[in-house]
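name: query_chain
kind: protein
chains: 1
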Amino acid sequence: MIYCKANANELVPASVLFSNQTQPADLPQEAIGDYVNGCLAGGVYLPKSGAGFQTMRPSRNRSWAHPVLKSFIEDLGSKVTKSGFPALLIGDISQPRGGPMDGGHLSHQTGLDVDIWFKPSPKQELNLNDREFLSAETVVGSFKSPWVNENFTEREAWLLEAVAKDDRVSRIFVAPPIKKVLCEQTKVENRSWLTKIRPWFGHTYHFHVRLACPSNSQDCVNQKDPPTGDGCGSELDSWLQPAELAKKRLAQKPRTKDKTLSDLPLACRNVLGAKSQQK
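structure:
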């Protein structure tokens, strides 16, 4: 790949540069860099409605994915439909060319992350107003309290297990009380999938699915594998104790610094400068 030279864009926050792109780059399909410092070449658009899913917040223009993630969502929607559960509401995926977002997520930069609402989709086709303003619903009593509420049902538990057992999935981020109830409900002989369920800040209204790097993305960087075991012991307990939770919050990397183009992988210069895909 031939890389573009540095230019005046070096002084502009990368989140602004990538948020201003309304169409994907006309380049081979590839996830570039890592989930919190990368971009997306040849992104594909997830339709607003499909078998077993509907997308939300279209004005954000964040329904662009690597083809492997698009296939994953379509497969999951089909599985949900066949199981008789209500369809999925799909939140943010990535921008047309991935990269840092202008407000919002730190990750979702390579087209391999997707937010899936816990709230089931209504049976009817959502109109534009519904997609923009329909509210999500929390399934947690309180982030600092070790319980879920009545919105966490058999469907949500089944859904998380089904996603975790998909070989394409690297991690699923949920609020700590959700991990706790899954640990309590899962039988001893069927716990290996719990490793992928990772407690994290927020994620009370949706769960965050992260796929592993596709085989055709040589510049994609996988996240380090989760610790071995089901993660249901002292590791989870530390997320449910206010003092320990405060320490974890303080240990988070600062989110205030705006990255510039020079902070991203070199290949992202080509992604930003490439012509748009033809419709």
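note: The chain has one domain: 8-273.
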